[in-house]
């Protein structure tokens, strides 16, 4: 039987609606809008698109958007000065520095400067520690969005076997930590993992976050498993087409024949990331107002 399709787009739209209502309530209470600042350095086309969408979604949710687009030649000092200024600005509740930064900039030093209570990406050491210690904090948007989809689909994750493929700071590692905090049994698989197909076959929950098009095959998936595909990869264009197809890290057509439920690409995890970003910014705003 074909898997249920997890409609991340609809889930994200409902979440954005809820955040919009809460943002209005925040405005009435605080006498100002919650504010999210997004910093983009350079002219990477994909990042330009992401930052544009984040700004639009912020305004649509009734929040103030502060976009800072800096030239490729921006120095470390200039970027750090901007982060300090945003840290000090009471109209700014959340700060996101779009990654990757141009090569000549030190992303770790920039992230370390962000006020942890404005760190809507959850990338500062303070928020990583809070996640590990099961304290309140701000946690990376994509993994939080995946957890929401899993909770909606499966309810309690206690005792379930989860395999996270990928160990990035932004997705794999925090994803694994969130799953452990929810009492799942978690394996983090990566490029050095031996016999990955066999590891994935033991999973009730598969999170694919490696950035390799259609790497996870249908015969790796245990019957009935829940598959969350974080990958967004553009294939080379077919002859005559101007753009290649977007695919995930999972071979969707194969996996949907075996899985119990699966997120599509596009329309699965992607829309959740922005919805959770707005939620994180609003959570930060409420905390700032006490
Ligand atoms: N680049 C791609 N995704 C993200 C994200 O979620 N946050 C940041 N800061 N940069 C990104």
Automatic annotation (TrEMBL):
Of which family is this protein a member? Belongs to the tetrahydrofolate dehydrogenase/cyclohydrolase family.
| InterPro entries, sorted | Aminoacid_DH-like_N_sf, NAD(P)-bd_dom_sf, THF_DH/CycHdrlase, THF_DH/CycHdrlase_cat_dom, THF_DH/CycHdrlase_CS, THF_DH/CycHdrlase_NAD-bd_dom
Query: What's in the GO CC field?
Result: cytosol
| Catalysed reactions, as listed in the record | (6R)-5,10-methenyltetrahydrofolate + H2O = (6R)-10-formyltetrahydrofolate + H(+); (6R)-5,10-methylene-5,6,7,8-tetrahydrofolate + NADP(+) = (6R)-5,10-methenyltetrahydrofolate + NADPH
The pathway entry for this protein reads as: One-carbon metabolism; tetrahydrofolate interconversion
What is the documented function of this protein?
Answer: Catalyzes the oxidation of 5,10-methylenetetrahydrofolate to 5,10-methenyltetrahydrofolate and then the hydrolysis of 5,10-methenyltetrahydrofolate to 10-formyltetrahydrofolate.
Please state what the protein is called: Bifunctional protein FolD
Which keywords belong to this entry? Amino-acid biosynthesis, Histidine biosynthesis, Hydrolase, Methionine biosynthesis, Multifunctional enzyme, NADP, One-carbon metabolism, Oxidoreductase, Purine biosynthesis
Gene3D superfamilies, sorted:
Leucine Dehydrogenase, chain A, domain 1, NAD(P)-binding Rossmann-like Domain
Q: Superkingdom of the source? A: Bacteria
EC identifiers of the protein: 1.5.1.5, 3.5.4.9
Q: How does it assemble?
A: Homodimer.
Organism for this UniProt entry? Tsuneonella litorea
């Amino acid at each position: 039987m074909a898997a249920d399709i997890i409609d991340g787009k609809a889930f994200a739209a409902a979440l954005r609606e809820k955040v919009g209502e809460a943002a209005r309530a925040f405005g009435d209470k605080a006498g100002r809008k919650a504010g999210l600042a997004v910093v983009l350095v350079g002219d990477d086309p994909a990042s330009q698109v992401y930052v544009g969408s984040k700004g639009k979604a912020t305004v649509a949710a009734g929040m103030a958007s502060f976009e800072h687009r800096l030239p490729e030649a921006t120095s470390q000092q200039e970027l750090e000065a901007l982060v300090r200024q945003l840290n000090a600005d009471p109209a700014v509740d959340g700060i996101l520095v779009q990654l990757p930064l141009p090569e000549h900039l030190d992303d770790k030093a920039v992230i370390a400067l962000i006020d942890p209570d404005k760190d809507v990406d959850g990338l500062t050491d303070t928020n990583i520690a809070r996640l590990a210690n099961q304290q309140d904090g701000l946690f990376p948007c994509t993994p939080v969005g995946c957890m929401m989809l899993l909770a909606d689909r499966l309810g309690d994750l206690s005792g379930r076997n989860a395999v996270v493929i990928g160990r990035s700071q932004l997705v794999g590692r925090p994803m694994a930590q969130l799953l452990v905090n929810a009492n799942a049994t978690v394996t983090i698989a990566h490029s050095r993992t031996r016999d990955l197909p066999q590891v994935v076959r033991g999973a009730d929950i598969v999170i694919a976050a490696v950035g390799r098009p259609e790497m996870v095959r249908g015969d790796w998936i245990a019957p009935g498993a829940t598959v969350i595909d974080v990958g967004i990869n553009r294939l080379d264009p077919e002859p005559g087409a101007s753009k290649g197809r977007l695919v995930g890290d999972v071979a969707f057509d194969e996996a949907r024949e075996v899985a119990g439920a699966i997120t599509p690409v596009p329309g699965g995890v992607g829309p959740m990331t922005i919805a959770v970003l707005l939620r994180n910014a609003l959570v930060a705003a409420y905390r700032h107002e006490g």
